[in-house]
TrEMBL record:
Keyword Nucleotide-binding in record: no
GO cellular component, one term: cytoplasm
Source organism phylogeny: Bacteria, Pseudomonadati, Pseudomonadota, Gammaproteobacteria, Moraxellales
CDD domains referenced in this protein's UniProt entry, alphabetically: USP-like
Domain named UspA: residues: 3-146
Localisation per UniProt entry: Cytoplasm
Name under which the protein is recorded: Universal stress protein
């Protein structure tokens, strides 16, 4: 199978960088376009009184957006240096898995490369797994980098 467009969802974790490295290794020889995405979710504030935390929410989103933009710009340069066509996207206000699936559909990705902590058992049940959710929802192949 040949791929034309790879989606790489990232956050600020070392696992994201493993996915980026894998995408760099695959994109050039396969002549793939790459989209790197970051999802800014509202998760930290679910279930709290909006009026009491409105300034905190605003500060959170401003800071999260700034960090995501800087992170994406830095990662983008790695692909540009290797002569790989790359784009970046930030998704706001949805769950990480939902945002990843939206971008995959929007850009016509045919492969998703992402990291996973590899949690199992109780930790996975309590903490959830974005990678697992994407894996079960995705109609396209998903390559999971486990660190």
């Amino acid at each position: 199978m040949t791929y034309k467009h790879i989606l790489v969802p990232v956050d600020e974790s070392p696992i994201s960088y493993a996915a980026v490295e894998q995408a760099l290794a695959l994109a050039k020889p396969l002549n793939c376009q790459v989209t790197i995405t970051s999802v800014i979710a509202v998760d930290p504030f679910v279930g709290v009184d909006f009026y009491k935390v409105a300034p905190a929410i605003t500060d959170y989103f401003i800071e999260a957006e700034k960090n995501a933009q800087l992170n994406l710009a830095e990662i983008k340069q790695s692909f540009i240096r290797d002569g790989i066509t790359v784009d970046t996207k930030i998704v706001r206000g949805v769950s990480p898995a939902e945002g990843i699936m939206q971008v995959a559909d929007e850009v016509g990705a045919d492969l998703i490369i992402m990291g996973s902590h590899g949690r199992t058992g109780f930790k996975k049940l309590v903490l959830g797994s974005v990678a697992q959710e994407v894996l079960t929802q995705s109609p396209i192949p998903v390559l999971i980098m486990k660190v």
